[in-house]
Specification:
The complex is a heterotetramer, with two copies of chain A and two copies of chain B. Chain A has three domains: 33 residues, no CATH class; 263 residues, Type I PLP-dependent aspartate aminotransferase-like (Major domain) (Aspartate Aminotransferase, domain 2); 127 residues, Aspartate Aminotransferase, domain 1. In chain A, 37% of the residues lie in helices and 10% in strands. Chain A is built from 16 helices and 13 strands. Chain A has a seven-stranded mixed β-sheet with strand order 1-7-6-5-4-2-3, with helices on both faces. A four-stranded antiparallel β-sheet of chain A has the order 10-11-13-12, with helices on one face. In chain A, a hairpin with an 8-residue loop joins strand 12 and strand 13. Chain A is globular, with a radius of gyration of 25 Å. By secondary structure, chain B is of the alpha/beta class. In chain B, strands 2-8-7-6-5-3-4 form a seven-stranded mixed β-sheet, with helices on both faces. In chain B, strand 5, helix 9 and strand 6 form a beta-alpha-beta unit. In chain B, helix 3 packs antiparallel against helix 11 and helix 5 packs parallel to helix 11. Chain B is globular and about 80 Å long. The chains are: A alpha/beta, B alpha/beta. The interface between C and D is large, with 200 and 203 residues. Chains B, D: The glycine cleavage system is composed of four proteins: P, T, L and H. In this organism, the P 'protein' is a heterodimer of two subunits. Chains B, D: It catalyses: N(6)-[(R)-lipoyl]-L-lysyl-[glycine-cleavage complex H protein] + glycine + H(+) = N(6)-[(R)-S(8)-aminomethyldihydrolipoyl]-L-lysyl-[glycine-cleavage complex H protein] + CO2. Chains B, D: This is Probable glycine dehydrogenase (decarboxylating) subunit 1. Chains B, D: Its EC number is 1.4.4.2. Chains B, D: Keywords: Oxidoreductase.
C-alpha cells in the first residue's frame, strides 16, 4: 500500500514543526500557491510504520551477503555514521567562515593526503559527487590539458570493450568520440589492436585495472607507454580499486588521472543507490586543472590553519561541479574509515578481497560452474558464465540470479561485462567470512541440481520475495511514474 | 584486523582450496615493480573510541554559532524519526535496486518520492534524483537541448540572479557540449530578472531560459510573465526553485499559461542536514511530453507475474549502462539515502506542516529584516518581495561586518561582495523556522555593536 | 542460527575497543581469570547482520498494530529518543555534582510537577524502576504510615479478583496477607462483600480504575469511604491511567497513593519488555514516606537551583530502591512526551483512547463477538469472550490470537482478567487510526468465518511466523536456558 | 493533534457507529464530580523543534567535564553499532514476548544474553535480567532465603565494603520479610572483608553471605577463601560483581572449591550509557540446583510443532501473573532494551575485546594512582590490590577538593566521607579505557593546583 493511500484529508498527527500557519498575505497574490500539494496527510506513527515496513522489503549488506560484482558491497562501519552525525559536522553550513570550519577542513585535508598516498598521485580534489562525476572531471582535465598545449587534434578517447558504461558516456559528455579497444580471450586488452587505434587524434584511454573481467591487466606498462608516446593520457576508473588497495598504486602503473568510488573502496554506505563520492587524483601534469574547491594547509603541523583553494588559487581549474564542495558527509565517512583501517588495514583490503574472490572462484569451479577466465588469477571479483546451463537446461544467468534470492543470497551482477555471455560477476569483498561464502556456494550448487531436475521451477523464481518477477515491458510502455488520486 | 573476519585457520583452508601457499601468491600476475611499498601518509589505525574522540574534538571546533546564512543551504528542523528510519540498515546499506524483487522497499519509496515531488512542483513526473541542485541545473540544460527539437541554436539564457556557483557549475559541466550560455543581467533596483532585459532576445532562436524562484537574492521573480514570454519564443522554461518555498509560492507547473517545462533544484531543505554542503540531492520534474529525455533513474509502477503491483527501474534504455556512449547522461546513481530521508520528511510534516515551515521562515525573515532596518544606515538592498532570504545593505563593508559578527558567534549571512563588487556593502541573510524572537534580537544587538565598533 | 554458532576462535574483526591486551600480571595470580569466557568471536558485520535479522522476527509498534490490553502499546515518539540521547543527558554520571547536573535535575523537577498535576496528588517520587516496583513502594509507604501511628494490627491488603497479578505479589513482598474481593457481573467491585472484608485488620486496598474489566468502577467514592472509615488506605494501580488521563485524577477519586507506568501512559518505548519506569504519587498523608531520591527546587523560577532530596530531607522515607535514582533515561523520555503533548494534548489522551476502544467494541460486537460487559461503556480497553466459539467450534481464545498473527495483527492479551473465560483484552490506544482498527476487525471477522469453515486450520495457526506453535511443556521440563558448545 | 490521527470525519463516523453524539458521552458512567478541570502544571505543548532546542540547552548545562567517578556507574566506550541496532523499531517498540511466534527476535536475543552472562560468570544459568544491580542484590538475598532450605535463621551477612546504596536498597526492599541483615565491618587497613570478621559467626545458622568483587572501594577480596568458608557454614555465597571486571578477574563460578551459588550485579558496564543512573539492568546467574528459585523472566529453548528450534518464556509458574500472591517476586518485566544493547556489545567486542577494555581500565587506574601519589601528602587509602577503582587519601577534606576540581571541569571521584566519616579525606577514583595519558596528567596538575589553593 502506498503512503498516499493512507492519507486522509485533515489528518495532522505530528508534533514535528510549527503548528501555526504564518500570515503570507504580504506576498503578491498571484505568486502564492492556490492549491495545496497532494502530499500525504498521515500520523507520525503511520509514516514510521510505513517506511519501517518498506525497508523490510530490501536486501542489504546489514541483512544479507551481497556479492554484487563491481559494486564492492562491503561492511559500512557504523562508527562512520556516528562521526558524520556529530553536531558540528552535521550542522555546519557549507558557507560558514573558515574561522568556524577548521575541524571540517582539517579532516578534508587529511583525506586528500591519504588518497594521494594510496593512489600514488600528486593532487586530489574531493569534490566529485559520484564515480561518474569523477570520470567527467578526469576527462575534462585531460581535455583542459591538451587545450592548454593548443593540441586541438585530439578528438578521441579509447575505451576497452569491457569497460563500465559510464566510461564511453563520460567521454561523449566531454566532447570526445569513443573508440572501442578489443579485449582478448584472457581478458587483457589486445595491445596490437590498441597500437593500430592510437595516434595524434588520441586524447587518452579510459581503463580500469583490474579490468571488469576480474583479472589484472598484465600489460599495463606497455599500454601506458603506447599511449604516452602518442601524446595521450591514461584515465584510471577507480571502480575496481578495492582489488589493489595497498598493493598497487595506479600512479605507479602510469595512469595520469583517476577517480575513486568512496562508497566502494572506502566503505561508505550505498544508500539504496547513493549518495557516493568520486574524488579525483592526478599526477603533476594535471595538477593545474583540478576541480575546485580543494582544501589547503598553511603553517606547521602544530599550528596549521586550513583554507579553501578556489579559482584564484587554481586559475586553470576546470571549475566547480556542485554548489559547494560535493558530498561532504560521505567524505567524512571515508576519512573515518581510513583512520579506522590505518596503514596496515589499508594493505589488507586488497589482500583479503583477492583471497575471498579466488576462494569462491575455485569452489564454484569445483561445483561445476564455468569460469570465464579459468587460467587467470581472480582479482577482487571473477566471472562465471552460464552459457552451458542456458543451452542445455534452458536456465539462464538471470534465472539463477533470481533463484538465489530464494536462498536469501543477493544475486551477483548479471550480464556484465557484455563480452562474456550469460555471466555472473561475483565480488565477495574482504569483509565477508568464509562461512558466508560457503553458504552462497552451497546455494549455487543446489540451484544447479534444481536446474537439472526442474528447470521450469528455477525459471519461475523468485518465490519468496514481496513480488514475483516484474513486467518490465509494461513498466516502460505504460509509464506510471507518479501516483495520482483516483 | 578491523572488518576482516578471517581466522588463521580460515586463511589456511582457503589457500589450500585455491592451491597456493600464501596470499602473496595470488598477486603473482602483477609485475613486481608495480607493487606498492609502505604507505607514508596513512596514519596508524585508531580504534573506534579514539576515532570518535578525535572527531568530537573536530566537531566541537565548528559548533555553536547561530547561523543566518542561506545561499543554497538551509537550516530547517529535521524530525528525529526521519533519519532514524532512513539509516535503518535495509535502506542505508542496500545498493541500486538492480534486483527489483529484493528491493521493493527502495523502489516503492522512490516511486512515492517521485509522486511527492511531482505534486509539490505541480508537474507530471519526477526522476529519482540527481546529485545536487547545481549539477541538476546542468542536466536540465542538457535535457532542454535534447528536448527542444525545434531549436538549433543551443542557446540558453541564464539570469545573473541565479545562484553564482550554480552558474559556474553549469558552465563547467556543459563546457564541451557547444552550448551557448548567455547571462541576462539583473535589475539593480529590484534584484530580479527584468523582462526588459530578456526582450533584447525576442525573436531569436533560444533553446531554453532559466527562471529562479526565489532567485539567489531571495527576491521573487514575476514567474508568470517570464514563463509566458519564454513559451512565446518556442523556448523551454526551466524553473529553478527551492522546494520548501513551493509549499507557499506558486509551483512551476502553474506558472503562466502552460507552466514550466522542467523544474529543478536542490532537495536539501526537505529533511536533509546542511552537512557542509552534501550529500544533498537534485530533484528534476518535467512534463509528460519530454519524459523520455529525462536523465537519471526512473522508477515505474508495474505488476508481477501474479498481477500484483510492484516497482522497477524503467526506461533504462536511456542510461549509460545500456546505451553507453549514446546515454542521456553519464549519471549512474541517484542520491538514494537523501531522497529516502526527504520522502519520510514530507510524509511526516504533510502539506500543512510544510506550508507552516515555509510560512514561519518567511515571517521570521521579514521580522529580522525589519529589526535590522531599524538600525541607522541599514536597509534593504532591493525593492520588491522576498521570501526567506533578503539582501541587506550596510553602511560599511559587509565582509568586515560578517567577520566581526562571527567573532560574536553569529554567522550573519553571505557576503554579496563575493558575487558582485557593486554589492560589497550588502549581505544576504536567511532566517528559517528554527530561529526564535530572542535569536533575532540577539542578531540585532550584535550588529549594532559591530557597526559601532567599525564606525567608531 | 545462534550468534555462538557463527563464532570462530581467534576471529576479531572489529575496530571497537583497544586492540592491545593490558599487562595484568600485577594482580594476584589466583584472582585472575584462567579460562576466557565463551563469548562469541565474530566480526562487526556478522554481529550487525545477526541482530538486524533477529529484530526482523519481532512484531512491534513500529511495524504492526499491537492492541495488547493492559499494556498501552501506543506510539513512542522518536523525538524522545533523540532528546534522551543528547550527550549531556546520555553521558551524565549519576553521581556528578549538582553544579554539573542542573539541566537534568530541572527536567526531573518539572516532571514531578506534571505528574502531581495529572494525578491530583501532593508528592511524587520518580525513582521506582517499573510498575511493580512502584507498587512495592506504594504498599511499603502504606505500611510505613500505619507503623508510624503504631497501628500494628493492620495485616491485610484487599485486592479485587480482577487485579493484575503484581498486586497480590506486591502485598506479600510487603509482608501483608492478601484477601480477594469479588467482582460482580457488571465488572464492578461487590461493595457489600467488600464491607464484610474490611476491618481494623485492613491496611488498605489495591485497585485500578478503570478496572482490568475495561470498565469504570462507578462506586469508587463509596469504596474509598468504606476503606478510609476503617482506617485503611487506597492504592491506585496506574496501569490503566491512559483511560482517564486528563479526564479524572486518581487523587480526586480518594486514592492515597499510586504508581504510574511511564512506558504505558507516557509513551516511553517498551523495549521488548522493559525498561519502563513506575513513579509513585501520594497525597499529604504519605508525603513523609516517599522513596528517595527526589528533586527539590530552591529559589525563584528565574534563578532556581535544583538539588537532590535524600534521607536527611525525608527522614521517614522508605529508603532508596535502586543504586541511583531509577531509570533516569526513561524519565527524560516521559518528560519530553509530556511537553510535546502539553496541557491540551494530555486531555485528549483519555478521550481518544476511549473513543477507539468503544468503536472497536461496537464493531466487533456487530461482527458476532460477545462482549464481556455489553451493557457498559468501554474505557480505553474492553473484553470479548470466545466461550461460545470454544464450545461450538473448538476454537479457543488462544487459537484466534495465534491466527491473528497470520493477518499481521498482534494478538490482544489473552486469558486475562482471569474471571472472564476465553477472553481477549483489547486496547487500541489513541494513536491508532480508524483504518488500523478496521483492518483488525476485518481480520477477526475473517477468522470467525474460518473457524466455522475449518476450525482445524485455525487451531494450527500461526503459519506465517518464523516458528509455529512452540512446545512450552518441553521448554519447562527439559530446561535449556543457555547455549553450550557441543 | 500530536500523535492522534483522527480526522473530524473519522470521529463522526466512529461516534455514529457507537451510537453517541460526542466523545464526552463516552464518559457518562463517571460521576461528574470526579471530572478533572484544567491542568495547571502541565505547560503548553511544544513542537519537536522547540522541545529539542530546550533539551539541547539543558543537556549543554551538564556537559563537558572529564569524569573520574565510578562508584557503581562506569564510562566505557560503546560502539556506535550497539544502539543503532538496539533502537531499531522492532526491538525498541516491542513488548514482553507473550506471543512467542511473533517475538522470536527478542526471545532468541535474550537466550543468547543468558548464555553470554552464564559463561561470563562461569555459572550454569542466567535469568533475562532484573531492574538494576542494587535491587538485583535484594532479589538475590530473597532467592537465597528460598533456596537455602537447611537454614532457618534468614540471617544474611552483608559486608560493609558492599556499595552503600546497594546496602540501603537491600534493606528497604527486604524490610518486611523478617530477614536479618548483619553488617560485617571492613578491614581498615586493606579495605576488604576480613575473614577474621566473619569468623565471629562461625557455626551459626547463616542463610547466605554476600561477597563483592571488586568491592565498593575497588579492592579485591580473597574470594576463594571467603567462598569456601561460606560453604563450610552450609551457607550460600552470593557474588556481587562488576561484569566487565570478570573479563580479567576470576569469575564467581570458579571461586573456591565449589563456586558461588548466585552471581548478581549491574550490567551497565557492558554497553549501557551512564545516563544519570539508568536504565541499567541487574543480571543474575545461579547454579542449576537452585534455578527454580530464580526470580524474573527466563527464556528457554524448545521446538515448534515441526520440531524446529524456537524460544519461549519458561518456568512462568514462578511468576506473579500466574502465581499471584505466591510468586517468587513481583517483578513483571526485565530491562529488555538494555539487555539487547549489552548482548550486541558483548558480541561485537568478544572475549578478547572485553579483556582489553577491562585490562586497559585497570592499567589506566594504576597509572593515575601512581601519578597522584607522587604529589606530596597524597597516597593510597588502603593496601592490597585494586582493579579499576582506588581510594586515594588526600591531605585535606575530599569534598572540598572535589568541589574545586569540578570548577576546573574535572569530576575527580566519589567523596568517601559520605560513606564513613573516617574516610572524609579520601576519594574513590575510577579510570576506564576512555581516558588518555593526557587526561591523567591534566588530572594530576589540576589536583596540584587545588591542593596548593587549599593549603595556601
Amino acid at each position: 500500500m502506498l503512503i498516499f493511500e493512507q492519507s486522509r484529508s485533515g489528518r495532522k498527527a505530528t508534533a514535528q514543526v510549527p503548528a501555526e500557519a504564518a500570515d503570507v498575505s504580504g506576498l503578491p497574490a498571484d505568486l502564492v500557491r492556490k492549491q495545496k500539494p497532494g502530499l500525504p496527510e498521515v500520523s507520525e506513527l503511520q509514516a514510521i510504520r510505513h517506511y519501517t515496513n518498506l525497508s523490510r522489503k530490501n536486501f542489504s549488506i546489514d541483512t544479507q551477503f551481497y556479492p554484487l560484482g563491481s559494486c564492492t558491497m562491503k561492511y559500512n562501519p557504523r562508527g562512520a555514521l556516528a562521526a558524520a552525525s556529530l553536531p558540528g559536522i552535521l550542522n555546519r553550513h557549507p558557507l560558514a567562515p573558515e574561522s568556524h570550519s577548521q575541524g571540517f577542513l582539517s579532516c578534508m585535508y587529511e583525506l586528500q593526503e591519504i588518497l594521494k598516498d594510496v593512489t600514488g598521485m600528486k593532487g586530489v580534489s574531493l569534490t566529485p559527487m559520484a564515480g561518474a562525476q569523477g570520470e567527467f572531471a578526469g576527462v575534462a582535465m585531460i581535455r583542459a590539458y591538451h587545450q592548454s598545449r593548443n593540441d586541438d587534434a585530439r578528438t578521441e578517447i579509447l575505451v576497452p570493450s569491457a569497460a563500465h558504461g559510464t566510461n564511453p558516456a563520460t567521454a561523449v559528455m566531454c566532447g570526445y568520440k569513443v573508440r572501442e579497444v578489443p579485449v582478448n580471450s584472457e581478458g587483457d586488452v589486445d595491445v596490437d589492436a590498441l597500437k593500430t587505434l592510437v595516434g595524434p587524434q588520441t586524447a587518452g584511454i579510459m581503463m580500469t585495472n583490474p579490468s571488469t573481467c576480474g583479472v589484472f591487466e598484465r600489460q599495463i606498462e606497455e599500454i601506458a607507454k603506447v599511449i604516452h608516446e602518442a601524446g595521450g593520457l591514461l584515465y584510471y576508473d577507480g571502480a575496481n580499486l578495492n582489488a589493489i588497495l595497498g598493493k598497487v598504486k595506479p600512479g605507479d602503473m602510469g595512469f595520469d588521472v583517476m577517480h575513486m568510488n568512496l562508497h566502494k573502496t572506502f566503505a561508505t554506505p550505498h544508500g539504496g543507490g547513493g549518495p557516493g563520492a568520486g574524488p579525483v587524483a592526478v599526477n603533476d601534469r594535471l595538477l593545474p586543472f583540478l576541480p575546485t574547491p580543494i582544501v589547503g594547509k598553511e603553517g606547521s603541523d602544530e599550528a596549521a590553519t586550513y583554507r579553501w583553494l578556489t579559482q584564484e588559487d587554481i586559475p586553470q581549474t576546470i571549475g566547480n561541479l556542485s554548489a559547494f564542495m560535493g558530498n561532504a558527509g560521505i567524505l567524512v565517512r571515508a576519512y573515518v574509515y581510513a583512520i579506522l583501517l590505518g596503514k596496515e588495514g589499508m594493505h589488507r583490503v586488497g589482500e583479503y578481497a583477492t583471497l575471498n574472490a579466488n576462494y569462491m572462484a575455485k569452489r564454484l569451479e569445483k561445483e561445476g560452474f564455468q569460469l570465464a577466465y579459468p587460467d587467470r588469477r581472480a582479482t577482487h571479483e571473477f566471472i562465471i558464465t552460464l552459457s552451458k546451463q542456458t543451452k542445455d537446461l534452458g536456465v539462464n544467468a538471470m534465472d539463477v540470479a533470481k533463484r538465489l534470492l530464494d536462498y536469501n543470497q543477493h544475486a551477483p551482477t548479471t550480464y556484465f561485462p557484455l563480452l562474456v555471455p550469460e555471466c555472473h560477476l561475483i565480488e565477495p569483498t574482504e569483509t565477508e567470512s568464509k562461512e558466508a561464502m560457503d553458504e552462497y556456494i552451497a546455494a549455487m550448487a543446489s540451484i544447479l541440481k534444481e536446474s537439472e531436475a526442474n528447470p521450469e521451477m528455477v525459471r519461475g523464481a523468485p518465490y519468496t520475495q514481496p513480488v514475483k518477477r516484474l513486467d518490465d515491458v509494461k513498466a516502460a510502455r505504460e509509464l506510471d511514474l507518479a501516483w495520482k488520486a483516483s | 584486523m578491523p572488518f576482516i573476519p578471517h581466522t588463521e585457520q580460515d586463511v589456511q583452508e582457503m589457500l589450500e582450496t585455491i592451491g597456493v601457499s600464501s596470499i602473496e601468491d595470488l598477486f603473482d600476475e602483477i609485475p613486481p615493480q608495480l607493487r606498492a611499498g609502505e604507505l607514508t601518509q596513512v596514519p596508524d589505525a585508531l580504534n573506534e573510541m579514539d576515532m570518535m574522540r578525535r572527531m568530537r574534538e573536530k566537531s566541537a571546533q565548528d559548533e555553536g554559532a547561530l547561523c543566518f546564512i542561506g545561499a543554497g543551504a538551509y537550516e530547517h528542523h529535521i524530525p528525529a524519526a526521519v533519519w532514524d528510519v532512513a539509516t535503518r540498515g535495509e535502506f542505508m546499506t542496500a545498493y541500486t535496486p538492480y534486483q527489483a524483487e529484493a528491493s521493493q522497499g527502495t523502489l516503492q519509496l522512490i516511486y512515492e518520492y517521485q509522486s511527492m515531488m511531482a505534486t509539490l512542483m505541480a508537474m507530471d513526473v519526477s526522476n529519482a534524483s540527481l546529485y545536487d541542485g547545481a549539477s541538476g541545473l546542468a542536466e536540465a540544460v542538457l535535457m532542454a537541448v535534447r528536448a527542444n527539437r525545434k531549436s538549433k541554436s543551443r542557446k540558453i539564457l541564464v539570469p545573473g540572479a541565479v545562484h553564482p556557483t550554480y552558474r559556474s557549475a553549469l558552465a563547467a559541466i556543459v563546457e564541451s557540449q557547444n552550448i551557448d550560455l548567455v547571462e541576462v543581467p539583473w535589475n539593480a533596483e529590484q534584484g530580479t530578472t527584468a523582462l526588459d532585459a530578456l526582450k533584447a532576445y525576442e525573436g531569436e532562436d533560444i533553446t531554453a531560459v532559466i527562471i529562479a524562484q526565489p532567485n539567489f537574492f531571495g527576491q521573487l521573480e514575476d514567474v508568470h510573465a517570464l514563463t509566458d514570454w519564454i513559451h512565446q519564443q518556442n523556448s523551454l522554461a526551466i524553473a529553478l526553485v527551492n522546494p520548501m518555498a513551493m509549499a507557499v509560492l506558486e509551483a512551476p507547473g502553474n506558472w503562466g499559461e502552460k507552466g514550466a517545462d522542467i523544474a529543478v533544484g536542490d532537495g536539501q531543505p526537505l529533511g536533509v542536514p546542511m552537512a557542509s554542503g552534501g550529500p544533498y540531492y537534485g530533484f528534476m520534474c518535467c512534463t509528460q511530453a519530454i519524459v523520455r529525455q529525462m536523465p537519471g533513474r526512473l522508477i515505474g509502477r508495474t505488476v508481477d507475474l501474479d498481477g500484483k503491483p510492484g516497482y522497477a527501474l524503467t526506461l533504462q534504455a536511456r542510461e549509460q549502462h545500456i546505451r553507453r556512449s549514446k546515454a542521456t547522461s553519464n549519471i549512474c546513481t541517484n542520491q538514494g539515502l537523501a531522497v529516502t530521508a526527504s520522502t519520510i520528511y514530507m510524509s511526516m510534516v504533510g502539506p500543512d506542516g510544510l506550508a507552516n515551515v515555509a510560512g514561519q521562515s518567511y515571517k521570521n525573515t521579514q521580522s529580522l529584516v525589519e529589526l535590522l532596518c531599524s538600525i541607522e544606515g541599514v536597509g534593504r538592498q532591493f525593492s520588491g518581495h522576498t521570501f526567506h532570504e533578503c539582501a541587506v545593505k550596510l553602511p560599511v563593508n559587509a565582509a568586515l561586518v560578517l567577520e566581526k559578527l562571527a567573532e560574536r558567534e553569529i554567522l550573519g549571512g553571505f557576503d554579496l561582495g563575493r558575487v558582485d563588487a557593486s554589492l560589497e556593502n550588502a549581505m544576504l541573510i536567511c532566517v528559517t523556522e528554527t530561529k526564535s524572537q530572542a535569536d533575532l534580537e540577539l542578531y540585532k544587538s550584535a550588529l549594532v555593536d559591530v557597526l559601532n565598533e567599525i564606525q567608531g
